[in-house]
Write a structure and sequence with these properties.
Elements: H1 5-16, E1 33-36, E2 39-43, H2 56-69, H3 84-97, E3 101-105, H4 108-119, E4 125-129, H5 134-141, E5 146-150, H6 155-163, E6 171-176, H7 188-197, E7 201-205, H8 220-223, E8 232-236, E9 246-250, H9 252-261, H10 263-267, H11 273-288, H12 291-310, E10 321-327, H13 329-341, E11 344-345, E12 347-349, E13 359-364, H14 371-387
Parallel strand pairs: 2-11, 4-5, 4-6, 6-7, 7-8
Antiparallel strand pairs: 1-2, 3-9, 8-9, 10-13, 12-13
Helix pairs in contact: 2-11, 3-11, 4-5, 6-7, 12-14
The structure holds pyridoxal-5'-phosphate (PLP).
Pyridoxal-5'-phosphate binds at residues 107-109, 112, 133, 135, 176, 180, 205, 207-208, 236, 238, 246.
C-alpha cells in the first residue's frame, strides 16, 4: 500500500478537471520575448511590469554586492543576518514610501504571514475582502483573531462588519491595493473613511501596486493621496521591483514589534546581500525617472483599448493586469494552449481561483513591450478569439 495514495487521487481529480499542469520551463531570462526550447515566445504573463529583471544597474548592483558581501547572509536578521545593505534598503524604502519605518522580509508572502500572524490576538478582529491574496488568507489563519469577510469591494458589508466590531480591542481592515486576478483597484478612499469612522486600522497589500500605481510607483496610498491615513502598507520587491522580497512600510512601533515577534523574520534566513542590493538599485531607478511607468501605462491603455474594441470581455481591469474572460476551465486552458501555439504565453486561470464560468487568460502588460509586440499579440488574440467563439 502506498501511503501517499490520497495525493494521487487528488492529482487524478485535477487531471479530470483539466487543471493539471506541468511546469513551463523557460530557457532564457525573464523578458518580453523568452525562449521555450527552440521557440521564441512573447511573454504576456510576467509580473516584470517595469522590465527591471534585466536592468544593467541592478545586475551591476548584484554583482558588486556579491563581490563585497558574498552570496549569503549567514543567518536570520535577528542574529548575524542584518548587513548594512539591509539597513540601507529599509531606510530608502521608508523614505520612498513616506513612512516612519520599513521592514524587509524574504518575500511578500512571508511579509503578510509575519505581520498578520503576529499582530493580532483573540481580542481583535480582522475584516478582509473576499478576493484578497492567498498570503493574506494564510496570514489570517495563523492568528487567533476573529475574522469577517466582505464581498469584493462591498463597502456596505464592510460597514456592517465595522459597526458590529465595537467590542474588540482592535479592528483591522485588510485589502489588496490591486487585485491580482481582475486587475481592479481597491476603493481605498472609501475604505479609509469608513475605517476612520469606526476607529479601525487600514492594511493594504500593494504587491501589484508597487512600482505600478502612485508617483514613481509609490503604491495605492500615494495614488489616492491618502498619506498618513493607511497604517500598514505591504509591498513586494518580487514583481515590478524585479528581484524578490517584501516589506512593511508603516510606524516605527510596528517595526520594533515585528522584529521581536514576526516568525518569518525570526526563524528564516534574511535576503542574500545581492538581492537587497538589487532592490535598492531598483528603488533608485524608480525615483530617478518615471519613463518606465509612463511606458507601462501608455502600453496598457493602448492594449486594453484594442482588446476591448475587438470585443473581448476584460472584466473590471483598470491596471496593467488585463484578464480576457473565456469561460469553463477546459475552454480556458485550451485557449491558453492555442495562444502558445501562436507564439504567446498567456496564463490560464480557472476555478477555484476564479468562478467556474469565469476562467480567463490573465495578461500583464509591461513597460518593455513595444507597440509591434502588442500588435502581434492583438493579431494572434483576434485569430484565436474567433476560433473559440469569443468574438
Ligand atoms: C504576489 C503577491 C504576494 C506575494 O508576493 P511575493 O513577493 O511574490 O511573495 C502577496 N500579496 C499579493 C496581493 C500578491 O499579488
Amino acid at each position: 500500500m502506498n501511503k501517499l495514495n490520497h495525493l494521487l487521487t487528488e492529482l487524478e481529480l485535477l487531471k479530470k478537471e483539466g487543471r493539471y499542469r506541468p511546469l513551463t520551463v523557460w530557457d532564457s531570462a525573464a523578458d518580453t520575448w523568452m525562449e521555450l526550447g527552440c521557440r521564441r515566445i512573447l511573454q504576456l504573463s510576467s509580473n516584470n511590469y517595469l522590465g527591471l529583471t534585466n536592468h544593467p544597474d541592478m545586475k551591476k548592483a548584484a554583482i558588486e554586492a556579491i563581490e563585497e558581501y558574498g552570496v549569503g547572509s549567514g543567518s536570520v536578521r535577528t542574529i548575524t543576518g542584518t548587513l548594512r545593505i539591509h539597513e540601507v534598503l529599509e531606510q530608502e524604502l521608508a523614505a520612498f514610501k513616506g513612512t516612519e519605518a520599513a521592514l524587509v522580509f524574504q518575500s511578500g508572502f512571508t511579509t503578510n504571514q509575519g505581520i498578520l500572524g503576529s499582530m493580532l490576538g483573540q481580542e481583535d478582529i480582522v475584516i478582509s475582502d473576499e478576493l484578497n491574496h492567498a498570503s493574506i488568507i494564510d496570514g489570517i489563519r495563523l492568528t487567533k483573531a476573529n475574522r469577517a469577510i466582505f464581498a469584493h469591494k462591498n463597502l456596505d458589508q464592510l460597514e456592517e462588519h465595522l459597526k458590529a466590531s465595537g467590542s474588540y480591542r482592535s479592528r483591522v481592515v485588510v485589502t489588496d491595493g490591486v487585485f491580482s486576478m481582475d486587475g481592479d483597484i481597491a476603493p481605498l478612499p472609501e475604505i479609509v473613511e469608513l475605517a476612520e469612522r469606526y476607529d479601525a486600522i487600514v492594511y493594504v497589500d500593494d504587491a501589484h501596486a508597487s512600482g505600478v500605481l502612485g508617483r514613481n510607483g509609490k503604491g495605492s496610498a500615494d495614488h489616492f493621496n491618502l498619506h498618513g491615513r493607511v497604517h500598514i502598507q505591504v509591498g513586494t520587491l518580487s514583481k515590478a521591483i524585479g528581484a524578490v522580497g517584501g516589506y512593511m512600510a508603516g510606524s516605527q512601533l510596528l517595526k520594533d514589534f515585528l522584529i521581536h515577534k514576526a516568525r518569518p523574520f525570526l526563524f528564516s534566513t534574511s535576503q542574500p546581500p545581492a538581492v537587497a542590493a538589487t532592490c535598492l538599485a531598483a528603488i533608485r531607478v524608480l525615483q530617478s525617472s518615471s519613463d518606465r511607468m509612463e511606458r507601462l501605462w501608455s502600453n496598457t491603455e493602448y492594449f486594453r483599448g484594442k482588446v476591448r474594441s475587438l470585443g473581448f470581455d476584460t472584466g473590471q481591469s483598470e491596471t496593467p493586469i488585463i484578464p480576457i474572460i473565456v469561460g469553463t476551465p477546459e475552454k480556458t486552458m485550451q485557449f491558453s494552449d492555442r495562444l502558445l501555439q501562436e507564439g504567446i504565453f498567456a496564463q490560464g486561470i480557472v476555478y477555484p481561483t476564479v468562478a467556474l464560468d469565469k476562467g480567463r487568460v490573465r495578461l500583464i502588460i509591461t513597460a518593455n513591450h513595444t507597440i509591434e509586440d502588442l500588435d502581434f499579440a492583438l493579431d494572434r488574440l483576434e485569430l484565436a478569439g474567433k476560433q473559440f467563439g469569443l468574438l
